[in-house]
Amino acid sequence: MTPEPQADYGPTLGELLRPRLRALAPWQKIALAGAALLVFGAIAATVIHVEAQKRSYTQTAADARARGLEPITFNFEHSRKLRIFKPPGDYVQAEWKAHGTLAASFSVSPFKISGQSGLLSGFMPIVATELERNAARTYKHFRLQFEGRARVGGVEGYQYAFAARILQPGKSPRQLFGRVAMLPEPYDVNDPSKGYPPGRIPTRGLKLTMLATTLDNVPSATRVGDEGILRRPFHSFSFGT
Questions:
Q1: Which residues contact 211 (CB under 8 A, 6 or more apart)?
Q2: Could you tell me if 120 and 203 lie in one domain?
Q3: What pTM value is reported for the model?
Q4: N or C: which end of the chain has fewer CB within 10 A?
Q5: pLDDT tens for each residue of 118-161
Q6: Is 91 helix (H, G, I), strand (E, B) or coil?
Q7: CA-closest candidate to residue 124, choices 149, 99, 142
Q8: Are 54 and 77 in contact (CB under 8 A)?
């Protein structure tokens, strides 16, 4: 039971406001009530607007099999600004372009874990090294900014962040920030933190690739997915449907 306020703490807010409210003229009370309704209405309208701008994506096993991909299920929320499409080899890509120029993208693709043993924290950096080498061949002026452990949707994985440049014919190169999170498939999607039994390790997983340019106002590679339009899909991402 919550104890009663003690006199040593002084009067409560309600005790301070009560005489002032009683002293108001009737028209002032009506105006105050109207103002309160406007405030609550504005808050409700903001919530409704935010929800209206949000969509969700769910990857089913059946769709993955039909496209020749590993049947791993997952879901995430995203802004309506992000256009959804399914390029070959990827489960999904959500992309936002401004006047034809890339602003941000969020893609999910499969990756395999083979020839590894031991703890996740021991072999995931090895897997990441190969992906970083591929990225260095893919992106112009690739510069690794960070790598380390990651936890997304309750799943422990590994990540790296990088900076690069997008070449634009007739224009100066545009700064590109990237962040890649590698998430092994959890042993139990209903309990992502549950580890594999002794002697067993995951053999496949998902790679989340997030790219952002200066058009998305992200200050650095390590903030991709934590700021800007990609925050919602990254922070809402989870395995399962």
A1: 102, 104, 105, 176, 177, 178, 224
A2: yes
A3: 0.76
A4: N
A5: 677 778 888 889 899 999 999 999 999 999 999 999 999 999 99
A6: coil
A7: 149
A8: yes
User: Same structural domain for residues 86 and 203?
Assistant: yes
- What is the side-by-side strand order in the sheet with 92-98? 83-85, 92-98, 101-112, 204-213, 174-184, 155-166, 140-152
Two structure tokens written together for 71:
């049947």
Q: What is the CATH number of the domain that holds 88?
A: 3.40.1000.10
Q: Which helix (H) or strand (E) holds 121?
A: helix 120-138
Distance CA 155, CA 78 (A): 20
Q: Which two tokens stand for residue 13?
A: 């807010």
Separation of alpha carbons 233 and 241, rounded Å: 15
182 Cβ contact list (under 8 Å, min separation 6) = 111, 124, 127, 128, 131, 150, 157, 158, 159, 205, 206, 207, 208
- Which helix (H) or strand (E) segment is 55 a member of? strand 54-59
| Short-list 84, 230, 81, CA closest to 152 | 230
CA distance 205 to 80: 27
Query: What span, in angstroms and rounded, lies between the C-alpha atoms of 120 and 149?
Result: 10
CB 185 within 8 A of CB 72: yes
3-state SS assignment for residue 61: helix
Instruction: Please tell me whether residues 147 and 180 are part of one structural domain.
Output: yes
Q: Do 134 and 228 share a domain, yes or no?
A: yes
Are 82 and 128 within one domain?
A: yes
